[in-house]
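URGENT: need a sanity check before tomorrow's submission.

F., can you look over the Sulfurtransferase record below? I want to be sure the sequence and structure line up before it goes out.
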Amino acid sequence: MSIPLRSLSALVLSGILFSTGIASATHISAADVAAKKQTRAGLYLTALEAADMLADPDILFVDVRTRAEVSFVGLPTRVDANIPLMLMPRDAAYDPKKQTYKLQLNPDFIFAFESLLADLEYDEEAPIVLICRSGSRSAKAANMLHELGYANIYSVIDGFEGDKVKNGPHSGHREVNGWKNAGLGWSYSVTPAQHYIMDAD
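Structure tokens as predicted:
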């Protein structure tokens, strides 16, 4: 059985990363990752590390935030597709403890993800990078995909917006780290290729 070109090149890249020690140089220990951001695969990247890895165009990069976040906050220009893990229901309930509105799991997440991989001719061994706002939803998505047999799922632990400042006048603001704060390429424009596949006509 032949291996799709994209999957083959991704496998070759994985071999190069491990043989040159680059993967170990960017390895982040689970002990250094907040519990809610830990994954079963144990593959973590900071936004800066992800940008370096994603210099290879054959590595898939998926943003799992909601469409509203992508529309109003922006997304990395390098993202291949937006596939929301969670959705904002029309009758979203307010959560007074978190002081925000409750999201619900996207029932089409797995189907949309596997449809994207099929369209791009990726397989279960291809390296895939997931990003969300700050690393929690990407970890949940990584765990779901790991259970389905996807072995090389990386989660960006500081996400697109980064972690919150804990003290001082900017307390509560997401200014600590993350893709946007690192000055990496991002845009408010969602290209036709990046838009959520389930919204296609």
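My own read: Residues 5-20 form the longest helix (16 residues). Residues 1-25 have pLDDT under 50 and may be disordered. If you see anything odd, call me.
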